[in-house]
Every structure is written in structure tokens, then in C-alpha cells.
Predict the structure.
Amino acid sequence: MTGLSDDIHDLAADYVLGLLPEDESQLFEEILARDSDLAQYVGDLRDRLLPLDLSAAPRDLPEGMVARTRAALEQLDAPSPITTARKSLPNAAANTPQMPSGRRAGLIAAALVGIAVGFGAGWLRPSPEPLVIAVLLDDQGVPQAVVEDYGNDTATVRFVAEIDVPPDRSLQVWTLPTPEIGATSLGVLDRTAPTRLTFDHLPGPMAQQLYEVTLEPAGGSPTGRPTGPIIGKGFAAPQT
């Protein structure tokens, strides 16, 4: 397949987000096995969504939410006063695009996910989009935090694991722009809340640039360099 259509892009997005029914998902996987371009696109899409996936803290669904959601989806095609009123209006032109009910249901589900993520982190993300993203892992390979660097002396950090910060300690975020500059602090935190970091006089972030979080004495490292145990570290992945 050379040049993926918009419909294939939409189908791939539904597949990655888990919105396809089981039979359609199996068919799509058969296509993936035969089409290297599509497989690469799906892989790239998964990589772009990984930081978002890791930043979403697991939560239990409210009681009865599944039943209410199913009932709402079943009513998508049910007659309503608005639908009844529309029957008396002139028919739309034959070429007017109409969204299938299945697509409507998928978009509604995606919107719900977007609302949930937006409450948690939407205020945190400056504009424009980050230049690089680094997923910080502990020594067991478990994600601990996600750093987004915007290249304008601004970055954000979001923690995706529970980290115990004693009262006499602080978390400190670091990066290594170049060996000549050395490890440079991006900010000191007293807790694992999502945080916007601001700093000065650093070159723009690059692919494979090191980022890490350490546990330091309260107020930050006394030497200006990392001294405490490493909570998580990772290398930057370009987003452009």
C-alpha cells in the first residue's frame, strides 16, 4: 500500500485505541501482516500515544457506568423528538455526508477519554507541542514519569507511579544537554503533582538527550549536580 488514505488512517486510529469490534480487529491484523506501510504507521501511532497512555493513572469506574454507557450507545439510533421533527423537514441532498452510527459511538467514546485526560493534564501543556518526550524508567524498567520539553526553556513533568517523598527530601528533575554543560536542573518538586518547569539558557532538546529524576535533600541538591538515588531516567524521543 503506497499512500494511506484518510479512511485507513481513521481505521488505524480506531484499532490502536481499541475501538474496533473483535471481528474487524482480526481482519485489520491480517491486513497489517501483509502491508508493511500500514504496520509502520500503526507502530508510529502507538509510539506517539505511549506517553499519554503512561500518564493516565488507573482508576476504578464509577458504579453502574458500564451499564449507563451501553444504554446511551443503544439510544444513538433510537427515535427522539428531534429525529421526529426532522422527518417533516426537506430531505438533505444526496451528497451530504452522514456519519455512521458506529463512527458516532467511537467518537463519543474518544471524547469521553479526552475529557478525562484534559481534566488531569490539559492545563499543563503549553503551546506549541513538545519537541521531545522522555519516558523515565526505574532500574526495573517500570515507567515513573514523563517529561515533555518544548525547547523554549519550558518543560513539564508528570508522574505515572506512586513515589514516596519523605518530608526531608525533594524530587529534582535533570537533563544532560551536552557533556560539556553537564547535568542541569530543570526544577525541584516536593510532591508528584504534574508540574510545569521553567529554566534558562539551555540549548534546544535533541534526540536521545538524557532526562532523569532524583531524590535529593529538601530544597534540591546542595552541589548543583545529582547526588541522590535515581527515581527514573530516559532518553528523549523527537516529536517532529
Remarks:
- The helical segments are 6-17, 22-34, 36-55, 65-74, 81-86, 101-121.
- The radius of gyration is 23 Å.
